[in-house]
Amino acid sequence: VSLFLQGTAAVVLADPKTDFNADNRVDFGDFLLFVQAYETTDPVFDLNDTGQVDFGDFLLFLKSYSRPLP
Which residues contact 69 (CB under 8 A, 6 or more apart)? Predict the structure, then answer.
């Protein structure tokens, strides 16, 4: 069986702000840091700049989880 694909593909990159532990990956270590900051006002984890680390920030973090950094 042969499969030939032609065209372009888009790679969705992670937001560098979500690499909280600066290890060049957005992974479980970053998730653990995020969970510790949940429901605080820590600006590092307040990804949507509302003044509170909440579900909106969690959704933004999920968009970057396991994706390559730029």
Answer: 13, 14, 16, 19, 24, 25, 26
Each residue's pLDDT tens digit, 18-62: 999 999 999 999 999 999 999 999 999 999 999 999 999 999 999
Question: Which positions ≥6 away from 52 have C-beta within 8 Å?
Answer: 39, 40, 41, 46
> What are the helix and strand counts (H, E) for the chain?
2, 0
- Which of 32-41 are b and which e, b meaning 16 or more Cβ less than 10 Å from the residue's Cβ? ebbeebeeee
pTM, two decimal places: 0.85
Structure tokens of 43? Answer: 């600006």
